[in-house]
Inverse folding.
């Protein structure tokens, strides 16, 4: 057998690519991961893990300060150097030895270098020393190359050497002041983190915050950021950016200007497909890759795509879910085993359409799954939403003095099942999986009345939501 031939080639060894390869190997195939940077990808080194490591210490501190008796013990301030050092331990100082070791231990080959499709079922890898290696796939190639920060075409922005999410998550020193352009998840989380470090933060959003979630989520996070000392400018366009000496000036559409030591651009993502040889197989470089629900690229029987590069849901857990479907279906198709590709089957990523869970790790946290009232209505469902103030729940009042939070469930009035749930409040992230199970399982409302939340926990908000809805 040709040493450069594998059943499956995975282009990109982020969390998603790793999982595709792992599932395929567990299904009896041979697989190789091609990686030009760090095995583990964005999530491990410049996204989920370092950002959450930057956020968690201040969250723990604020939590202690919300409990009489405990708050008296908190006499100091955040130790920023210790926070950064703890962050470094999560990124293993940007060293991927342990992940490479995991891959090889799992029976997955790893080839370092930049991979490009050069023909059907063929990837050519350019190694760091400039040499080339041609890999051939007997069954499939999966593109899992992820996404890059999107830098909008704002006058002077690129020349101002802006921070992207990579700089914000890997900074070794914190700036005195930071302007953040954007109003999404990265902007809200990084504004929260840097404000907690004592950086003077100004967030400039062209709309409200966290668009796409329930409107009360963005409103509550805006209010909380302001309480944490962040200057939040809503409905404000960024028209020009200039770097002069040690500072950056951001000019806004209303004639104002914000001057800061650094500017973080957090305005979404663009697919990493410009230089992966898409043209060699008849696709357009720079495009997102559209797939069916088995993650196979439309028009191909051997080309798959998973994770950010598909634009289905730019989240690690959702990409890994796609990866499990893709790795399993590639193995099933290769071995001639039955394929289960109907909705909610073994080999499809159906939840991407109806039940994507997401947590925004601001303080308060925002945890949501499935539809908002708006998106459910737009999708044609006949719906009713009920809200409840989480602070009224006994468990929440014990958890934190003056607990402030809101929960909403969106009910499909025809089927009497949940289409979506949103929680906003301190530490609501751990409530989310119950909601995800209810939405994915399409658990009827009358059965949910039998899922009794333990007293006194914050989960009792479930009972209050059901009572507010009324027993069918
Ligand atoms: C600041 C920030 C915080 C985030 N926090 C969260 C969070 O808390 N929870 C969550 O679920 N999601 C979070 N996300 C989103 C999450 O990081 C992404 O959804 C996830 O990393 C996507 O994984 P992926 O494997 O598709 O892509 P990536 O992780 O980007 O992996 C792609 C890999 O492919 C490699 N590659 C690309 N092109 C080539 C090539 N031609 N040859 C060889 N290798 C190549 C890259 O080097 C990379 O290692 C966050 C994102 C950001 C920016
Ligand atoms: N906790 C998490 O799960 C987490 C954390 C961070 C990021 N992520 C993922 O990473 C992805 C990227 O996050 P993000 O915050 O960069 O994107 P986003 O799509 O969440 O937000 C982009 C923001 O930039 C604004 N914007 C876009 N173009 C602009 C322009 N030309 N001028 C001014 N503003 C502009 C948008 O209005 C929006 O507010 C998200 O899809 C998210 O799912 C997840």
């Amino acid at each position: 057998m040709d040493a450069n031939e594998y059943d499956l080639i995975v282009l990109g060894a982020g969390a998603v690519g790793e999982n595709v390869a792992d599932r395929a190997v567990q299904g009896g195939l041979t697989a190789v991961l091609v990686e030009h940077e760090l095995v583990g990808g964005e999530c491990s080194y410049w996204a989920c893990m370092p950002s959450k490591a930057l956020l968690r210490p201040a969250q723990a501190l604020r939590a202690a300060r919300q409990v009489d008796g405990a708050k008296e013990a908190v006499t100091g301030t955040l130790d920023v150097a210790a926070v950064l050092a703890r962050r470094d331990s999560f990124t293993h100082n940007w060293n991927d030895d342990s992940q490479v070791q995991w891959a090889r231990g799992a029976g997955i080959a790893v080839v370092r270098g930049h991979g490009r499709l050069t023909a059907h079922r063929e990837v050519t890898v350019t190694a760091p020393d400039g040499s080339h290696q041609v890999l051939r796939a007997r069954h499939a190639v999966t593109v899992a190359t992820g996404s890059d920060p999107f830098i909008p075409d704002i006058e002077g922005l690129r020349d101002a050497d802006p921070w992207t999410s990579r700089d914000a998550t890997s900074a070794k020193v914190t700036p005195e002041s930071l302007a953040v352009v954007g109003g999404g998840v990265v902007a809200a989380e990084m504004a929260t983190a840097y404000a907690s470090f004592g950086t003077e933060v100004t967030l400039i959003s062209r709309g409200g915050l966290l668009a796409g979630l329930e409107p009360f989520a963005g409103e509550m996070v805006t209010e909380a950021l302001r309480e944490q000392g962040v200057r939040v400018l809503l409905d404000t366009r960024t028209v020009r950016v200039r770097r002069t000496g040690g500072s950056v000036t951001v000019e806004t559409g209303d004639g104002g200007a914000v001057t800061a030591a650094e500017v973080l651009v957090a305005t979404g993502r663009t697919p990493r497909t410009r230089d992966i040889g898409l043209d060699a197989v008849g696709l357009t470089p720079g495009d997102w890759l559209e797939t069916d629900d088995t993650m196979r690229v439309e028009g191909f029987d051997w080309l798959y795509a998973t994770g950010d590069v598909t634009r289905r849901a730019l989240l690690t857990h959702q990409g890994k879910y796609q990866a499990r479907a893709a790795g399993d279906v590639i193995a099933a198709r290769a071995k001639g085993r039955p394929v289960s590709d109907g909705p909610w089957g073994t080999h499809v990523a159906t939840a991407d359409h109806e039940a994507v869970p997401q947590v925004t790790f601001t303080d308060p946290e925002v945890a949501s799954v499935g539809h908002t009232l708006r998106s459910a209505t737009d999708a044609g469902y006949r719906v009713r939403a009920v809200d409840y103030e989480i602070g009224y729940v006994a468990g929440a009042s014990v958890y934190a003095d003056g607990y402030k939070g809101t929960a909403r469930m969106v009910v499909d009035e025809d089927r009497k099942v949940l289409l979506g749930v949103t929680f906003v409040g301190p530490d609501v992230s751990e409530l989310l999986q119950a909601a995800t199970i209810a939405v994915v399982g399409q658990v009827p409302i009358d059965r949910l009345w039998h899922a009794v939340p333990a007293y006194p926990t914050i989960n009792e908000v479930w009972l209050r939501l059901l009572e507010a809805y009324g027993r069918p």
